[in-house]
Request: fold
Amino acid sequence: VNSALVPEDIDIDVLYEDQNIIAVNKPSGLVIHPGIQNEKGTLANALVYHFDNLSDVNGENRRGIVHRLDADTSGVVLVAKTNESHRWLANQFKTRTIQKVYYAITWGKWKLKSGKIEGNMIRKKSDPTCFELTSTDEGKYSKSTFRVLRQYSNFSCIEFEPFTGRTHQIRVH
Reply:
């Protein structure tokens, strides 16, 4: 099996670039790196096409990739050009010194204008691809704050700030 990352001429929206990092505006629908169902057409494929120097801390198939956003999520992705900048960025994600803010459109109206959502997250027994909050000690602790920015008749625009980085955390919260 050829596991080398194939460079692909995929347009990417570069918001910022210097000798150490690249900030990319990732659109919804773009997968970050190759996986079981996505061998090509990923941000990683585009990065190796457009940039000569990318970190290899996470291996050849994830050159430059420091963190991920879900395929369905749009937003800024930070990419490392050097192994030193990769470790520097990764440490900031690990120590939570990078502030992450998400905006979501949710169905319905919110009773509270702001607050905190926290609890342990587990995989749903009925659908292991989904997660849910549980009242038991199972799973992993998750915490986000939220602020209602705008309420409409049937939906709301919410700002979320996650303090933990669980898979699908914002969607579950």
Notes: The mean pLDDT is 93.
